[in-house]
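Researcher: Please translate sequence to structure tokens.
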Amino acid sequence: GFENGLKRNELLYLIYVRYVIIIPFWFVNVAAALFGCKIYNFLLSTFIATIPGALLLTTAGRGLANAFLTLDANEISAFTLFKQVLWSWDMLFCGCLLLFCLSLPLILKRYG
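Model: Translation complete:
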């Protein structure tokens, strides 16, 4: 369970559970406090797991907004919107950031 994972590798486990979508952040925060996690592991895991995800969502939203701004209202279709969003620098950055977010727990497990 949660306590066993924390005992094995506190920092890595906190990062991992923050990336698991079905576990809400508030639950991880409360459980970390109840199980006595070290404050620096809690803060570092929050920073590592939260900042890239927030940046990813913000950049994806900006890419979608930019696609709507560049298209004419008469031209908007699912295909043109998809093409405009997919082939933008924002989405390239999002793809790279998503790759980073997905590989971070694996890298930390291997070298952490």
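Researcher: Any highlights?
Model: Residues 39-70 form the longest helix (32 residues).
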